[in-house]
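Problem 12. The chain below contains 256 residues. Write out its predicted structure in token notation.
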Amino acid sequence: MGTNSNKIFLARIFVIAALGVAAWAMVCKTGVDNTDEAGIVLHLPEQVGVWQGMDLLFCPNRDCGGQYFSAQLEDPTVCPRCGGRLGNMNWAERSMLPADTGMARKFYVRGDGRDPVHATIVLSGDDRSSIHRPQVCMTAAGHEIVSERIIRIPLATREQPLEVMVMDMSRSVTGEDGAPAVNTIYYAYWFVGKNRETASHLVRMAYMAYDRVRFGVSHRWAYIALSGGRDPRNDDHLQMIADFASRLHPALLAPN
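Solution.
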């Protein structure tokens, strides 16, 4: 068996073992306490390096679907179209996520208008199902995942780099002139738990199972997502993601 075959075989064994432990721990393990402890703060800073943040608000009414920047509104609590109460989740998120899911989001722009970033934090509540593989939502929304890769971002605050999963995606759309067009974007994310951090959904599940079995606790997990446009002719967005994430990361850490 060659080296690549060995790696694939070992990876499959790890996947099966981790999923088996996770399934057993979540279904059969008793005496597990849900805690409110989380590895991050549910807050996005007003500024990240040269990027300035703006609050995004959504109307919960599916028929309306209004989306606004809070600074544009005279009353940031009420939808100017239908009178619905605005919040930071759109109607689809409100309908799919458990009611106690926490969310923070901002749209960040630079002074020169380049490299805008949509940043989101999703934090699980008592129902831990708030956190799942982002690939599920992306493909359900009509995006094609062109590539997936983990990038390792140096941090000034520690020796260990931050690992971030980056998905390059495309989506067929209709242009303003009515002609078919392709929208190319990226979606980058990583998961954070109490004293845990990973870019892998599988590793997160293994951490959850270990904490339940070894310590009898289930912490609140979160994922941090960054998204924006990309040029399909190059990988310049990877450096932009690294610059933004390295500056955002220290602001998200929960105090020990």
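Discussion. The mean pLDDT is 85. Students who got a different answer should revisit the alignment rule from Section 12.3.
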